[in-house]
Amino acid sequence: MSRSRLSLLIAMALASGGVYAQSTTGSIVGQVPTGLGDTVTVQSDNGLQRDVAVDNRGRYAANQLPLGNYKVTLKHNGEVVQTRNNVALRVGVSTDVSFAEATTGARELEGVKVTANALPAIDVTSVDSRTVITADQLARLPLSFSAEAVAQLAPGVVNNSGGFTSATGGSLVSFGGSGANENAYYINGFNTTDPLKSEGGITLPYGSIDQEEVYTGGYSAQYGRSDGGVLNMVGKRGTNDWHFGGMASWEPASTRSSFKNWYYENGQPNPPLPTGTLYDPREQNDYWVTTYDAYVGGPLIKDKLFFFASAEMAKKDGTSVGPVTGSSPYADYSYHMPKWYAKLDWNINDSNILEFTGASNKQSYGADLYRYDFQNRAPGKFVSHADGTKNGGDLWSGKYTGYLTDSLTLTALYGKMRTTAFQQPVGYDPTLTYVAGITAQNPAIVGSQPRYNNQTTSQLYDPSRGNSVSNLRVSLEYKLGDHTLTAGIDNLTAEALNQGKVSSGPGYTWSYAHSNFPQNPIDPGLGVGAPADFANGQTGYFVKKLVNSQLANVKTVEHAQYIEDNWQATDKLLLSLGLRNDQFTNYNADAQPYIKQTAQWAPRLGFAWDVNGDSSFKVYGNVGRYFLASPLEPALSAAGASLSTTQYFTYSGINPDGTPTGLTQMSPPVSANNNFGILPDPKTVTAKDLKSMYQDEYILGFTKMLGTSWLYGAKATRRVLRSTIDDFCDVGLITDKAQALGYNVSSVNSCYLINAGRANTFVVVDDAGQHHDVKLSREELGFPPAKRKYYELEAFLEHPFDGKWYGKIDYVFSRSYGNTEGMTQSDVQSDGPNESADWDNAPIMVYSNGDQGNDHRHQVKFNGYYQITPEWLVSGNFSYISGGPKVCLGLFPGDNPDPAGYGSSYHFCNYVPVTPGSIGRLPAQKQLDVGVKYTPAFAAQRLGFHLDVFNVFNNQAVVNTTPALYSSSDGTPNPLYGTPRVMQAPRYLRVSVTYDY
Asked: Is 438 helix (H, G, I), strand (E, B) or coil?
């Protein structure tokens, strides 16, 4: 094909408008020699047919086609000239189907399925950064059955270092230096992201995934509410042919390597334990997993109505042993993880399509709890049943596509999702009081046998607790010459229903503790004195009475409008010009708005340059701004009537049920964050004119052919966080400034939501009920400027599948640094902005600038497969992820070691400044997964036997450790400092049998 002719084809493809992030469709485009044909008919394997005209330059485009296999026919005056069969679409991509001169009448040609080696070899129609994994690849590669495991095939995507998981157990991932809860999840175009904490989202049964897009940056103005990455799952659909099949998979406990034990790394607790430094005998943990999957799909009415349905049931059974400090640490547990998916497609006619999707993703848990003999490593007597939990939910959505004219297409999607977070105490006894810290009970009273009761429930939850989401999307696409214009709306409403918790039993719990320095105050910042100043406190033993109550319904409304122009400026240059406007409104427990953010303009500018005009060399770039709405959870504390207090006592005795007697009060109820159960005025909840969290992103890269069998490329990415939201809890600074301005005020707020690292204006209420503005500069707040910066340099080499083998290796050098990780704080295992200590007060942020918890300098990934014979295939994945930064948090130097009342939470180690990452790095995570697949010829290769081994060399690298150097503000060493909290999973084996008909 001549260069000029191919350039025209590519120009048409780029202007086709088929390339959009989180899309569920693809496009077919091509070039027709002059006079050879005037129309092109595309017909899918479910009967959908569209006729499109060939323009005067010989170009045609059929946009927004449902995924599937297509027959493409060129016609001249209604007569068939040429035909291409088996053209498989790839989500979000324009597929080239061009026609050549015919020599003898009509010809039927075999189309090329859109795999990695399909022409054009390089996709010059995209300006974004993404990885698309198809169902065929999922069936070949050794991967865990989760959307997040698939996402980690993409460069720059790593498992989070805090051990954070979704409500249904999926391990969250971090994209490009962002927090693990700054991502967006989609199923067939519907936003399934968890609205409460943005931790994951509903995902499909593994066998129902047709294609999964993993966006790592640069997506269009049509989508937002993510500054991390996007997991876009497109489910399978029915066709005119009936298909059914299933899978059975087993992960035997007997083939799983032992977990490594955890030990106290900083001395032993006081009083010493008979088990020495052993903290958690994890080698006693064991579990097995079974997964069953079945599907069926086909026509209800040929060429008109189709359905696809699938179900998956995974079950995990096992036993585990918790830390030596637990009163009932041995658990015999079971998880049930059902999923289902259903899709109905109705081709009303060739111009109108309706699609209906239903999906469910849930997890339930139950366990029996026992005492445990740590010295003899044997379970003891039965204590009780653990709280039963049920998490996850269901969704449904409907989508309409109308091909109004050859140039005008209308799409509209609406759906709802309802999730639950049910937790039911099994055998709960309201007459018993929960007791914690039993190993810190005074041995002069209890000897070597701590006293406790059978209460295993510390908090109670509303049984109807959950979340609700509705999502409406409408877009109109119009082709005008070399421009493809798209405009639309993207509206989402999310509600948290009956969220929160209360203390069990009588409404409070007890927790025992000990100070090695009884003459020092326990918490001088909150006015808690030294145990030695009170009766029975001379040896440092004391107890805390904890009261917690937090129940509320809150809501957020998120609207957006966008306009985008994909403009083919020249035959070789595509410009993608977009603008998005987001508006976010958050409501408190009394349905009053406390955050209202409007006119948030997010430009998206990208280009793709086909350097040689023959799809052999692409240079592309993207600049974009991405706004992130605040999740629902911060409203439960900042805009809710949250009660969380601690009261300190010494004691002279302990009852047989573990509750203290002979109490001497050391303090009234205190709360480090002023959580005394009063709903604050909504005007005073946040800083005035609070700006959303947003990030700017810059991408520049290239992809080039290397010979006829290889591709290589490189990309540079820069991300800069421009604004972030966090809670600020030093309310005394605000009231003091108000008093200095002449306002007589007192605050009932526990914390304020602010733009961290900036000047903020607070609204206060005086004794007469009048509102006043009080502005504090960044210097008055005592904060450094907020910073989160990320850069990434990526290089890859790929051998597309040629019928024999496929392989890809990529290397990423990156750095994530600053003084805020975002909406997570991995080093302290905080998975929400209102749960971390960052920005709560000035002392916390001293020496906070350094490497962030998700900083991994070097990443090497390889995945590939080799078809030895038609019956035998071998595959493998390898990853090397360099270790994250070590962290040490201690006490402040000087006369007041705990100026904020936060204990061992400051960036000082042995009273010496220690910035994050300055004391070394954790070990690298190295993992090799291999697989073998046998599809015997006697079963027409429909039957498959799979053997996968994960983490072949059984590397169990430490991913996260306890950062607190001290256990209390008086300088008592924390024996757990440096003890692992998250480790790489050990080696395990999976055996599967599949059948596809």
From this structure: helix
Distance of CA 166 to the CA centre of its chain: 7
The two tokens of residue 446 are 């209890």
Determine the average pLDDT of the residues in 253-273: 93
Residues in the chain: 997
> Is the pTM higher than 0.85?
yes
614 CB neighbour count, 10 Å cutoff: 20
Judged by phi (left if over 0) then psi (alpha if -120 to 50, else beta), residue 87 lies in beta
Quote the CA–CA distance of 443 and 437 in Å, as a whole number.
13
> Is a pLDDT exceeding 80 seen at residue 115?
no
Residue listed under structure tokens 């059978």: 454
Compute the distance between CA of residue 399 and CA of residue 187 in angstroms, rounded to an integer. 12
Alpha carbon distance 493, 482 (integer Å): 36
Lowest pLDDT segment from 103-112, 584-593, 830-839, 914-923: 103-112
**Cα–Cα nearest to 563, from 598, 599, 604, 510:** 604
- Report the C-alpha gap between 988 and 255 in whole angstroms: 6
CB 531 within 8 A of CB 650: yes
Question: What secondary structure does DSSP assign to 834-900, as a single string?
Answer: TTS-TTSSTGGGTT--EE-TT--SEEEEEEEEEESSSSEEEEEEEEEE---B---BB--SSS-S-TT
Angle at the Cα of 349 from the Cα atoms of 348 and 354, rounded to 5 degrees? 35
Residue 530 makes CB contacts below 8 A (sequence gap 6+) with 515, 518, 519, 520, 521, 522, 537, 970
Give Cα separations from 348 to 235, 356, 397, 818 (angstroms): 21, 13, 18, 54
What sign does the dihedral 435-439-445-447 (CA atoms) show? positive
C-alpha span between 32 and 82 (Å, rounded): 11
pLDDT tens digits, one per residue of 602-621: 999 999 999 998 889 999 99
Contact 45, 240 (CB under 8 A): yes
Q: Are 609 and 575 in contact (CB under 8 A)?
A: no
pLDDT in tens, 912-953: 999 999 999 999 999 999 999 999 999 999 999 999 999 999
Closest CA to 185 of 157, 164, 161, 166: 166
- Cis bond before residue 430 (omega within 30° of 0): no
The identity of residue 77, as a single letter, is N
Average pLDDT over residues 154-159: 95
Which two tokens mark 797? 């080499």
Three-state DSSP state, 193: strand
Residue identified by tokens 């959908």 is: 48
**Across residues 586-614, what is the average pLDDT?**
92
For 313, left (φ over 0), alpha (ψ -120 to 50), or beta?
beta
Segment 513-535, tens digit of pLDDT: 999 999 999 988 789 999 999 99
Joined tokens for residue 487 = 């405009």
Which residue is it, tokens 């499909």?
204
DSSP helix/strand/coil, 419: strand
SS3 845: helix
Give the chain's radius of gyration (CA, Å): 30
Question: pLDDT tens, 798-826?
Answer: 999 988 999 999 999 999 999 999 999 99
Q: Which of 425-429, 622-626, 855-859 has the lowest mean pLDDT?
A: 425-429
Q: Which amino acid is at 883?
A: G
pLDDT band at 127 (very low <50, low <70, confident <90, very high): confident
Eight-state DSSP code of residue 614: S
The CA distance from 713 to 706, in Å, is 10
Q: What is the DSSP letter of 111?
A: P
Query: What is the bridge-based pairing of β-strands 593-610 and 693-706?
Result: unpaired
Rounded Cα–Cα distance for residues 864 and 586 (Å): 46
CA distances in angstroms from 387 to 463, 510, 712, listed in the order given: 12, 19, 52
Residue with tokens 């109108």, as numbered in its chain: 352
| Distance, CA of 913 to CA of 907 (rounded, Å) | 6
Cis peptide before 986 (omega within 30 of 0): no
